[in-house]
Design goal:
354 residues; single chain; alpha/beta; 16 helices
């Protein structure tokens, strides 16, 4: 059992609570393994009717992501620890996606990377005014994994492509407006939600009961703050190449579009192209498991890439925020450079026991 996460049964509810506040509840392999084991047991347990995911009371953030420093240190060697983490985390993501009972996640605070994967695949996702969502991986040379290839292209229009390539942050109700969360609830009402959950009888129709509780507490979702740029996002981010997307943004007369183009050009060029192909292929995947196999192939190799090692150095270790990407420009990243990340792994392919 990991001290960084609590998995327990309370009445008819399977409760998962992140308890690693010193790292903003960032996921590690033991945490993912414990959550996966709990989901596997609760899937067929007739006494469990609902899964509830949150973080420890009185601590910051929901989940800031995965253990990036560990991934980089492992990638600098044989990458076995990093690959074991991905294997466990992605199986956990798939278990959440396939879970046959309602899964409620309360995204009250920072929700990035691995924290998105822990929440976005559940049936009910609550954002508060303190929610801060992002998939910032292109800025460190990784990629928007944990099912990003599946859920991002299935958001409205090209919102997912915009979020993946730029690492744009959504705050508060915007997280629900974008479809990342399903409901919006002011944080001051989270304790009331908890009391209702603990008092409810979910044994007859858990989904209907949960919907009824949320209907009485949650607020209507206002128009998103990014709404003024929606047409630009859908038009410019629909291209099939990163160069085409950046060119469309740079040709747009608005300052916002040109700013987004500059943002993309500051990210790892190779990773931007990998992420774009990931989303385009993920949109065509017939099953979530197919998408996760694709992402495992990328992750298997990406942790040992120059840009990931350099991105972690620049952003997390030295914090000079001056990564030397290689290649340095989108135009210099070849199709072969990208394709190598998607090649099959043979006997090392990701399997799903869940």
């Amino acid at each position: 059992m990991s001290a960084d996460v609590s998995t327990k049964v309370t009445g008819r509810i399977g409760r998962i609570t992140l308890t690693r506040p010193s790292a903003l509840h960032a996921l590690n392999t033991p945490m993912c393994a414990q959550i996966l084991a709990a989901l596997t047991a609760w899937k067929t347990d007739p006494a469990i009717h609902l899964v509830w995911i949150d973080h420890q009371d009185g601590t910051r953030g929901f989940c800031s992501g995965g253990d990036i420093r560990m991934l980089a240190e492992s990638g600098a060697g044989d990458a076995s620890e990093a690959r074991d983490f991905f294997r466990t985390e992605y199986r956990m993501n798939a278990a959440l996606k396939a879970f046959p009972k309602p899964v409620l996640a309360i995204l009250d605070g920072v929700t990035m990377g691995g924290g998105v994967g822990l929440s976005v695949h559940g049936s009910h996702r609550i954002a508060t005014e303190r929610t801060l969502f992002a998939m910032p991986e292109t800025g460190i040379g990784l990629f928007p994994d944990v099912g990003g290839g599946w859920f991002l292209p299935r958001l409205e229009g090209q919102l997912g492509t915009w979020l993946a390539l730029t690492g744009a942050r959504l705050k508060g109700a915007d997280v629900a407006a974008a479809g990342v969360a399903t409901h919006y609830l002011p944080s001051e009402r989270v304790p009331a939600l908890a009391k209702n959950l603990e008092a409810a009888d979910f044994s007859v129709d858990a989904t209907a009961m949960l919907d009824d509780i949320l209907r009485g507490l949650t607020h209507a979702v206002p128009a998103p703050s990014y709404g003024a740029h929606r047409e630009t996002i859908h038009r410019c981010f629909g291209g099939q190449t990163a160069e085409g997307i950046v060119a469309a943004l740079e040709a747009d007369p608005g300052d916002w579009a040109r700013g987004e183009a500059a943002t993309i050009r500051a990210k790892s060029p190779e990773t931007v192209k990998v992420a774009l192909r990931q989303l385009r292929e993920g949109a065509r995947c017939e099953t979530f498991e197919d998408n996760m196999r694709m992402e495992f192939r990328i992750g298997w190799r990406k942790v040992q890439s120059h840009d990931f090692q350099e991105g972690v150095r620049a952003v997390i270790i030295d914090k000079d925020n001056a990564p030397a990407w290689s290649p340095a420009r989108l135009e210099d990243v070849s199709e072969a450079d990208v394709a190598k990340y998607f090649a099959p792994l043979g006997d090392d392919e990701l399997a799903f026991p869940f």
